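To illustrate the input format used throughout this study, we show a single complete record. The first block contains the structure-token representation of the backbone; no residue identities are included at this stage. The design step must infer an amino acid for every position from geometry alone.
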């Protein structure tokens, strides 16, 4: 690795398809720049990369967040459904989201 370069990863995932790109970038590279360098836009043309928020290990970051060695930039895609609405619908049917699957409430 060249002097002043750091190793990072950029991740993007859709249901049934995901990609993780390892990159060496210059120290001082920000999250949005790393996304552009990853060229993931070509692999996921259905996503609007300019508008999607970014995270580092699950924590939302600003576009200008300066990356640290070992960081993983993650593209946060839009939710298919609002989790609050899903919980309301399940509650109306007497179910919960426990463990990631709908389960009967124990009253």
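Output of the design step:
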């Amino acid at each position: 690795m060249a002097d002043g370069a750091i190793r990072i990863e950029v991740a993007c995932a859709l249901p049934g398809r995901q990609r993780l790109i390892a990159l060496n970038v210059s120290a001082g590279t920000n999250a949005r720049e790393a996304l552009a360098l990853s060229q993931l836009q070509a692999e996921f043309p259905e996503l609007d990369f300019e508008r999607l928020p970014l995270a580092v290990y699950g924590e939302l970051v600003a576009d200008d967040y300066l990356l640290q060695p070992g960081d993983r930039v993650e593209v946060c895609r839009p939710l298919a459904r609002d989790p609050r609405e899903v919980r309301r619908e399940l509650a109306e049917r007497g179910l919960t989201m426990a463990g990631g699957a709908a389960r009967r409430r124990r009253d």
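Structural context for interpreting the output: The longest strand covers residues 5-14. The radius of gyration is 18 Å.
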